[in-house]
Design goal:
This protein has 98 residues and is α+β, with helices and mostly antiparallel strands. It is 36% helix and 26% strand. α1 packs antiparallel against α3. It is rod-shaped, with a radius of gyration of 31 Å.
Length: 98
Amino acid sequence: MKKNIRSKISGFLTSEEGRVSTKAPLALGVATGSVLLAQAMVPSPAQAEIVWDFSNVTCLWNWQCDDDAGEVCAFWDFTHQPGPTIEVHSACIIPPDD
C-alpha cells in the first residue's frame, strides 16, 4: 500500500501538472494524512505487565523478628495503577490479642 501511494505521489510531482499546479501541496497533504490514518487504525500489540516491587520487604520469616517480644513477620501489598505495579511490604509486628 505504501509503495503504491509513494509511486503515485512521485509520479504526480514529476508530472507537469504536479510541478506547476497550486494543488500539489494539498494533494501531498491528503496522501500523507491517509497514510497516517491507516497506521493509526492498526491496533498496538503492547500489553501491560505486572511489576513487582519488593524493595520494602524487611523480613521473610518469623525467626528474623524478636521472638522474646512476640513479634511475627507480617506482609501486605499496595497496587498502583496504571501498570499495574504491586508494592510488597513486610515488617516485624506484635499481633493484636483477639
